[in-house]
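[retry 2/3] BMP family ABC transporter substrate-binding protein: previous attempt timed out, resubmitting with same input.
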Amino acid sequence: MLRNRFGRLIAGTAAGAMLLAVAACGGGETEAAPSAAPGSSSAPAAATAKVGLAYDIGGRGDQSFNDSAAAGLDKAKAELGVEVNELEAANGETDAQKEERLRLLATGGFNPVIAVGFAYSAAITKVAKEFPEVKFAIVDDAAEGPNISNLVFAEEQGSFLVGVAAALKSTKNNVGFVGGVDVPLIHKFEAGFEAGAKAVKPDITVQKKYLTQPPDFSGFGDPAKGKTAAEGMFDAGADVVYQAAGGSGAGVFEAAKAAGGLAIGVDSDQAKTADPTVADVIITSMLKKVDVAVFDFIKNFTAGTVKAGVTVYDLKAGGVDYSVTGGKIDDIKTQIDEYKNKVISGEITVPTGA
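[retry 2/3] BMP family ABC transporter substrate-binding protein: success.
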């Protein structure tokens, strides 16, 4: 496997194409509909479309955020016949390094180019201006530009539902939240989770811990930090811990296993993707359907209907939800769905932490 100062080379369908590495997960919000709405584009036909995708820290194989994006890319490759190049981020990168990676894709003939994570916001804003003929998309941020599409989510709504599940499953009236990096996007996960737990049990204790502070984004890829944080919560009385920490979540699951506690995954159905030795402690996951957003964007590009601006994937649109793999919340599903319907109807407005 080739390596250079930009990151890991990953094989794509374009012969001899360079694959590199990219950073983080991020937020932004506005009103919009689920699947990308119509607009104008000079997109090529699917058979000739070459899609460049730059992952967040951890890349393909993180069992969470990035793998969800990868699933959407894989679907586009299989169903739309597009060629792909995938780039992976490294810890501690500068905006200049992110910019250079996006430029390499754009100059290499990749159009559209998708950046996975809010850490690309400054880079994509700058590079998109340099390549006005290329369509760009960013997951989790509302970077502005006439050729930038923003794929964002109502993470607080999905987190509210797993907060309900945590409270219903907690016998100690004490639950925990582990955030990867202390940024506004992850505050949405925290705020929704706490609101959901307290909707069920107003006096429940909600412990909270962020692994790193910006500009240190290693909190999204450090299982050891995740394990230490969760161990502290279980020692302090928690019996269910929710993590919104990317690759660091693996450590949270390890801590839950060792403590005889329960855990909640994030972004993808982690009871299916986590290490089998710890998967049994995961009672549910907050589903953030990055795969749907990525596929929608690519499909609209190939159809010539991609648009700039914000599209929000919320609970009503099916962009966020909760998982039921393993049957561990079958006994409380009816109660969770009652809250879900109240959020969709507008009876409950979930805070974002802003």
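[retry 2/3] BMP family ABC transporter substrate-binding protein: The domain at 3-154+290-313 is CATH 3.40.50.2300 (Rossmann fold).
[retry 2/3] clearing retry counter.
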